[in-house]
Amino acid sequence: MPGDINTTSRLAVSASINEGFSIFGISGVPGNVLLNRKTGAYRVVSGAYAIDRFESDLAALMAGNSFSTINAATIEKILTDVHYYGNPDAEIIVLVYSDLLCPFCKRHHSDKTVETLTANHPAGVAMVFKNFPLDMHPTAELAAAGLYCAGKLGGDDAYYSFLAHAIKASSFTD
Length: 174
What we know:
The chain is an alpha+beta fold. The protein has one domain (about 1-165): 3-Layer(aba) Sandwich (Glutaredoxin). About 50% of the residues lie in helices and about 20% in strands. It has helices at about 1-25, 50-60, 70-80, 105-110, 115-120, 140-165, and strands spanning about 30-35, 40-45, 70, 85, 90-100, 125-130. It has a six-stranded mixed beta sheet, with helices on both faces. Helix 1 packs across helix 6 (about 140-165). It starts with a helix and ends in an 8-residue tail after the last helix.
């Protein structure tokens, strides 16, 4: 049975990477997408920026400024089988495409930028962490598999608890 979970987690990680790249053009991490799940409007914020950058982009998105859009079917696919940090019914979802071993991703997470954004807008903004392991971090895919399994076994709380611990690690082993 563990082989099935391993295969499933690898497929999920591969799908996340493909989704981030093909839909949003993300090629490096952290790649963040502020997505209005009702209108399909989104804004990509590539890199580990401070909260003021996210607040500014959120305000522009909410004001209806012109952004790229995706259709409802694509949004549904992106948000299938995800784990929410914050309100799962929020209108704005911050998709965080990240590598658990990337030093920039670690800084972005330890600064709690997206978590602060969700706390500042508890009813309207939630985060969804998406694995995007880079080839230069050979054990990041194993970490991504562990995160996937934590979510499958324990839901949102276990997923983000594992994330909080895993993001502090320097490598992962079997």
